[in-house]
Amino acid sequence: MKAEFQLARGAFALDVALTVEPGEVVAVVGPNGSGKSTLLNLIAGLVRPDAGHLQLGGRDLLGTPPHQRGIGLLAQEPLLFPHLTVLANVEFGPRAQRRADHREIALRWLEEVDALALAGRRPRQLSGGQAQRVALARALAAEPELMLLDEPLTALDVDAAPAVRGLLRRVLRAQNRPAIMVTHDALDALVLADRVIVLEAGRIVEQGPARAVLTRPRSAFAARIAGLNLVAGTTVEGGLRSSAGVVIAGLGSAGVGEEGVAVFSPAAVAVHRANPHGSPRNALRVRLAGMEPHGDLIRLRADDGLAADITPAAAAELELEPGEQVWFVVKATEVGVHAANGGV
């Protein structure tokens, strides 16, 4: 699939070009309002762009109605037809295509998603995880040339999500069709996607292999969903100078004088009330904005967006309160320095 769209709606403008290869799964991430859903709607034909093109399987689809595009959609909610059985729901696509073997196709896909035993039930008799399995079977039974997944695991509870995630991975990997998935979950991107695209304000600001983007992010949003700290600035010898003029020592291959980012884990940050002078580590003075549980640890958030994870015992010993100034300290060996445009 090759697509390029330009769209302006009031103060919002989208200008995106992307290619998705056969069998490739691309995750699209970004803050609310960045244009993720708009991009999916443009591809699906639910929104018409001001300019651009969309090619899929050798066809130009820009003027093609949604139901003739050969595109499947799996949304947050299963959106099953409530008056039909599970089997009839999955049959709907191939039946509409006048396939004589529509029942065989539906049964095969229900078996593929481990939902064959549910064939005779109505949607109201299904759990959330079961309904999403059926919705996936229904989307794939129409044999789409492209799959769109709009946060397909968001509405599932913590028990159902892992099973459906594993199912999606298995089914998507078995298909030689492109797929585009919108998600806010780093785990979904790592498990399901080959490549990650980061959208901000209607533009692609970062893209690359999923693991590279989420372990060496170059945009603030990618760092946030990966649970990492990110400081932007200009690369210097042995590190990075932030926009505030603070030099952060770190390891990386970026050339001197480039726009860059320093990235480090909240778990690598030690917290001190006073500056530990004489230490070879980075010491950043911050003001605490809040404290919250984070697994077995306490996550401290600074008003500049940085975070530190410390034990409850350490938090009690420091007697911290929001609004206080403290020092976030991190070893240079824990900081990665990368060129800011390296993923685009």
What can you see in these coordinates?
The protein has 344 residues and is α+β, with helices and mostly antiparallel strands. It folds into two domains: 2-214, P-loop containing nucleotide triphosphate hydrolases (Rossmann fold, 3-Layer(aba) Sandwich); 227-339, OB fold (Dihydrolipoamide Acetyltransferase, E2P), CATH 2.40.50.100. It has nine helices and 20 strands. Strands 6-7-8-3-9-10 form a six-stranded mixed beta sheet, with helices on both faces. Strands 13-12-11-14-20 form a five-stranded antiparallel beta sheet. Helix 2 packs across helix 3, helix 3 crosses helix 4 (128-141) and helix 4 packs parallel to helix 5 (160-174). It is elongated. The mean pLDDT is 91.
Name of the CATH class of the largest domain? Alpha Beta
Mean pLDDT rating: 91
Query: Biggest β-sheet: count, sense, barrel?
Result: 6 strands, mixed
Task: Give the beta-strand count.
Answer: 20
Strand content: 25-35%
Number of helices: 9
Name of the CATH superfamily of the largest domain: P-loop containing nucleotide triphosphate hydrolases
**Shape descriptor:** elongated
Radius of gyration using CA atoms only = 24 Å
Q: How many domain units?
A: 2
Task: Detail the poorly predicted runs.
Answer: none
Oligomer: single chain
Keywords: ATP-binding, Cell inner membrane, Cell membrane, Membrane, Molybdenum, Nucleotide-binding, Translocase, Transport
Domain ABC transporter: 1-226
GO molecular function: ATP binding
Protein name: ATP-binding cassette domain-containing protein
